[in-house]
C-alpha cells in the first residue's frame, strides 16, 4: 500500500501535541510536529479552558505539517481528556468559556446527586464511576450557579467535538466521551433519560452520536487555504483519549489488563460486554465506550497528577528537576516508610500538593515529610499508586469474571521504569510497557480504520506490535509486596 499520512491532535492535561502518523507496509511511524500547553487558566477564581488558544495551536500544527510534508494529508482527528464540554446556542455560538473539570464548582454536587437520585440508582442507569469531574456533575453545578447558560443551550458539545467543530463547522457528539458523561445508559445504548429528568436537564441538548472512525466533515476550505493544505477529511478517532490509548495497547485482548498511565491512571479491561452488577457498583467502575463495539471496563486512579503538582512545587527550589531524576531518587529511598490513599479528595486540586500530603500524614498519624524530602515523597507516591492499581484490578477482575495474566502499561507514564517494576511486584503478573505514545497511535489507527485500512482491533494491534519497542518487567520480591499490600487493604483501603 502507498504510505498514508494521518494527523492526530492529542490533548492531554499537561500538554497537547500534533503528531503525524505514517502508515506503510504494516508499520506506523510517528513524527511529533508541535507541542503546546493545555493547562487551565484561572480567571476570577474560575478554572477555564482556553479553547481559542487550542484552536490556534491546531492551526500552528497544520502549518508545521505543510512545511515539512507538503499539502497532501489523508485525515485529521482530535482526541482529548473526557468530561469537559461547551454549550452552544441554536446558532452554534459558544455560550460561555468552557470550564476545566478541576474547577471547584462541582465540590457540592455529590450531595445533590444523593438527594435527587441516589448514587445506586445513578450507577444502575449509567454504569459510570462517581467522580466530581463527570459531565453530569458539571451540568448540575452550572444549573445551580449559571442557570441562564443551561437555559439557552441547544447543544452539549464535548471538548474534542468543539475543536472538530471549529475546523469543520459540523456539530457532533462523541460517543466515547458521551459514554463516560453519566448521561448515557450503556445497557440500553441510549441517553439516560431518567438522569435528565431527575436533575431537570434539558433533553434538547442530546445529540446524535458520532462513533470512532466516522467522518466529521471536510476541513473548512478557508482554514485549508490558510494552512496551505489540499482538501482533507476530519475523521473521529476515539475522541476520549483513554479509549484512543487502549486501541494501541499491543497486549490488549484475553487475559491482558491495560493501564493507561498519565495525569490520571486508568485501569482498564477490554471487554465484549457491558458490566453493570453489584460488584461493579460497589467499586464504582465505569463502562466506557470503546472502538469496534467493545467496552472498556475502567476505573480512574488520581494518577501521576499528584506527582506532577509536587514537581511544579519542587521546581521552585530545584528548577531543572526532571521526572527521570525524581524516579531515580525514589528508587534509592527506603521502601514502605509511609502510605497514601492516592485517591483521597485532599489531592484533587489543592493550593499546594506538598501541603495536601502533609495534611494526609497528619490526619493518619504518620510522621511528616519536609518539602525538600523529594525522594521519600516520590517513593511514597509511587508505592501508593502501585497498591491502588492492584486493589482496583483485583476488584474489577472479580466483577467482570476476568483472569488477569498480564498487564500492559501504556501512555506517557509507562516510561517510568521504576513504577513499572513496583506495579509488577504488587500485581504479581508480568508487565509489558509501551507504547508511550499510545494515545496518538490509537487516534491515528482509528482514523485509518475509518479510511478503510483496518477492520478490527486485532489487525490494529498487530501493526502496533510491529512498530514500537515494548519492555517487560517481571515480578520481584512478591512476598514482601504481598505483605505490604495486605497492610494497605486493611489500613488504607478498608477492604
Ligand atoms: C484521561 C481522562 C480520563 C477521564 C479524565 C477526565 O485523560 O480522559 O479517562 O476520566 O481524563 O476527563
UniProtKB/TrEMBL annotation:
Entry keyword set: ATP-binding, Disulfide bond, Kinase, Nucleotide-binding, Rhamnose metabolism, Transferase
Superkingdom to which the source organism belongs: Bacteria
A single BP term in Gene Ontology: rhamnose catabolic process
Domain (Carbohydrate kinase FGGY N-terminal): residue spans on this chain: 6-247
Keyword Transferase: yes
Domain Carbohydrate kinase FGGY C-terminal: 259-449
CDD domains: ASKHA_NBD_FGGY_RhaB-like
GO CC, one annotated term: cytosol
Gene Ontology molecular functions: ATP binding; glycerol kinase activity; rhamnulokinase activity
Keyword Transferase in record: yes
UniProt record similarity statement: Belongs to the FGGY kinase family.
Descriptive protein name: Rhamnulokinase
